[in-house]
Amino acid sequence: MKFANTLTFSVIAILVLSVSGCSDSDSGSSNSPPQSPKQNSVTGKVADGYLQGATVCFDMNRNFVCDGDETTVTTDESGSYTLSVPEDVSQTYPIIATVSQATIDQDTNAPVRNAYTLVSPPGRHAFVSPITTLLALQSNGSSDEALSPRVSFLLNQLGLSSDVDLFADYIEKRDDESYRTVHQAAQLVARELGAALTTLHQGERGAVASPEELTVVTGILATDLDDYYELFTLSDDDFDADAFALSLEGEWQEFYSGIRDDFDTVHKSIVSYIGKPILIDVGVYRERTANGEVTEKIEVLFAADVALGRDYNLIVRSGSGLEHKFSQADIKEQSSSYLLYSLSFPAGEIADGYYDFYLENSNDMSEQTAIASIYFSSSEYFPEAQKENWLPDGNLQLVKTPYGESQISFPTVNDELFVRISLQNPQGDMYYQSDFERGMSFYLKPTSDVDVVAGSTLDVEVSDSDERFGRTFVSHLYSAPIVNATSQSSVTFSRIYKRWRERDTETTSSYVWQFNASPMVQDEKASPLVPLARSIEIDYFDSMDQQYKRATMHDLDYNQIMALGDDYYVDDEENGLTLSNSLDAELYQDLEVNFLDAFYQSSSEIPYAMYRIRVVDGQGETSDHYDYFRGGESGFDQMIAENIKHSKSDDGEWLILEAPDLELYDEVYYQFNLYVNYTKDGDSRELFVINTPRTALHRVFWRFDDIDAAMASFADEYEPDSVESVVLRASAWDSKSNSLIDTRSESKSINVSNLFDLQDL
Fold first, then answer.
1. CA–CA distance, 312 with 310 (Å, rounded to integer)
2. Who contacts 225 (Cβ-Cβ below 8 Å, separation ≥6)?
3. CA-wise closest residue to 312 among 355, 272, 367
4. Burial state string for 537-575 with b = 16 or more CB within 10 A and e = fewer than 16
5. Partner of 454 at 20 to 30 A CA spacing, among 35, 133, 196, 474?
6. Quick one: which H or E segment has residue 430?
7. Rounded to two decimals, what is the model's pTM?
8. HSE (CB half, 13 Å, CA atoms) of 542?
């Protein structure tokens, strides 16, 4: 985790292992020849994906090279190896795997691009991976006590629970979503590790890494591992580590070139944190509780480490004269994964200014290491508790969706603040609390895996940060009882945004309510359809008048849906409104679930406000979904066709796409879409075929194998008479989360037909 000017790297002190030599004196007790050490057969696997052709040995001289006097083997096609070594060797020495450009990664069935070295601590040879490498090269020893803080820190970086085993074979466990996350992280770590070592060696892709180089690169990688989390959470099943690595390669080269130019200083800085407790988060902020009481807090979160309070003390100092050495009494929460120190003060007692945090060596109090510095200001925005009239009946609804989900949608003051919710049972005991998440406006049971207790209350708090670092406040917003929804249909997804579209001669703008509601009919295959939902009502909350006002509504005409082939458009010329609805179905656990795929578009500006999307069923029962629209930017005006570059890689494997780098905006997420224009039965048609994951990367590599498979699927399903063209459109969004999107810009179509053989389609 990065802190301004106080970046803390935590890396290994390479174990100093000594080997006792045999005495050359003759004891005279025996003339028998010396006994050979008992041999032990050691087996394991090496992986990014399983790696074939990696060289494996126990590194007895700590140089991270398999030397001639060290027993060495090569992994087979499953990444497996077997080593015959003296029985104490596997418990005494780290195991290493050197990965060359001849090594085959079974994830891709291709050689790796850059050489690198993998490590696993002594006694943990069963699975050697990029993740075990980070643990081995960050831990001051190989005992559970030494490894535990580093394990906790990496799990925190990846958003994983403490029951995930980072030394386990994540490929074997790939059916578990948590281990898929570990695998994806390992893939990116391996690629950045190889790219970094290549850069440090002036572009030599097959260079052998030194211990110092591995220490530096793994220290940086472990600190930035949370940056990867966004990449694979956005891409879901479309995750392609090679595509991301190629997209990031230029950035990596620039960064590690800077490291190379000041390598000794960076190495010294990293090594200086060896063995010290790992800081996760720190903050100085104000808090308003549900009863309106305001306190001021200093909180510091560490990965759990027995060294805290034993070998190291935590100290905070401020320019106003505050100095405090934290003790056991200041521990607010503690688990096997983390330890939270917390100090509370009455409102107004903490002075404005910087608060500096240090780790003090218990055995030498003159040795103090700065780990963070925070600025506190009492003049920052601090929202009052409020419920307004967002909930006219005072309740929130618990919706049971057709997908087996329990969902609660709730209003918030705006979607720029970070929201945390808590659930309390009827006795007032809290049994669930979320993390802070920007703009969160719904609770979903599969994410939290907590059942809502009947008669529960939902508490909503807001903050200006999801981390303590940089946070200035936490404020209780409101509490509301939860009741079961009685409507037969409900909204399961929504986003409200301003849409900018490049046309042939101009750029147009409109406002969009886009949402799904489900289920809408009893049986989507029946004729006639039997509706469950009668209408859609969209209202916005007028904070001046403290009431909801109508934005639009639409009576669902299922006969029209049937007549127009399950897809229809309604133009409301008077209000400048276009409504597009389709009745779709998808398979969920062997059940067909039908849903309304709605896209309501207005040419007139809509208010910046909290919106309530309401589904009204045939009996007049309602289900409400809340979404805040804070207004669109002026549009990403550089997202036009003439600024979008496309080319084919030299090896023909990749379509390379590049949009303008819109770095002036706080958040920009890019996506590229391919469409086919074709004829069928004399009609000209256009169909969306495939898109890239939405990521913060403005330059992406897109595997032609994936595109070709999508094109083949299109040809098989639609059987076009002819394909006239393949076109590309680029989009930019202002958020990674659907519910937080307020701005979307799209380029006009770019003809990329020259990259394809249209006759084959």
1. 6
2. 134, 154, 157, 158, 185, 189
3. 367
4. bbbbbeeeeeebeebbebebebeebeeeebebeeeeeee
5. 474
6. strand 430-433
7. 0.85
8. 8
Average pLDDT over the chain, rounded to an integer: 86
* Per-residue CA distances from 463 to 85, 226, 472, 572 (Å): 56, 21, 8, 40
pLDDT digits (tens, 9 = 90+) for 614-661: 999 989 999 999 999 988 766 788 899 999 999 999 999 999 999 999
Q: What is the 3 state secondary structure string of 144-177?
A: HHHHHHHHHHHHHHCCCCCCCCCCCCCCCCCCCH
Closest listed residue to residue 110, CA positions, set 249, 245, 242? 242
Residue 307: per-residue pLDDT: 87
CB 531 within 8 A of CB 558: yes
Q: Using one digit for the tens of pLDDT, what is the confidence trace for 183-215?
A: 999 999 999 999 999 999 999 999 999 999 999
Q: Cα dihedral sign for 86, 87, 91, 94?
A: positive
**pLDDT for 143-155, tens place per residue?**
888 899 999 999 9
Place 125 in a pLDDT band, splitting at 50, 70 and 90.
very high
Q: Which amino acid is at 97?
A: A
423, 452 in Cβ contact below 8 A?
A: yes
Mean pLDDT of the 120-129 span: 96
Tell me the three state secondary structure of residue 80. Answer: strand
Residue for token pair 């799209």? 746
**Where on the phi/psi map is residue 353: left (φ > 0), alpha (ψ -120 to 50), or beta?**
left
Distances (CA, A) of 715 to 688, 720, 726, 749, 752: 13, 7, 13, 21, 18
Helix axes 211-223, 263-271, angle to 10 degrees: 70
The first and second tokens of residue 671, run together, are 């996506």
Q: Is the pLDDT score of 715 beyond 80?
A: yes
In the chain, what are the helix, strand and coil shares in percent, each to the nearest 5?
20, 40, 40
Alpha-carbon dihedral sign for residues 557, 561, 567, 568: negative
What is the Cα–Cα distance from 487 to 624, expressed in whole angstroms?
A: 10
Q: Could you report the per-residue pLDDT of 489-517, keeping only the tens digit for each?
A: 999 889 999 999 998 888 888 899 999 88
Cα separation, 183 vs 241, whole angstroms: 10
Instruction: Report residue 15 as tokens.
Output: 């174990």
Residue 36's pLDDT band, with cuts at 50, 70 and 90, is low
Place of tokens 């000041």: 262
Tokens, residue 741: 């999107």
| Average pLDDT, integer, range 291-303 | 93
What's the CA gap between 212 and 64, in Å, rounded?
10
- Contact yes or no for 610/541 (Cβ under 8 A): yes
Asked if residue 389 has pLDDT above 90, the reply is: no
pLDDT given at position 648: 94
> Token pair for residue 426?
């009827």
Query: What pLDDT score was predicted for residue 34?
Result: 53
Residue 102 token pair: 């001849």
The closest of 722, 642, 652, 640 to 681, measured between CA atoms, is 722
Of the chain, the percentage scoring pLDDT greater than 70 comes to 88
Distance from the Cα of residue 375 to its chain's centroid: 28
Structure tokens at 148: 């535990």
How many whole angstroms separate alpha carbon 655 and alpha carbon 647? Answer: 6
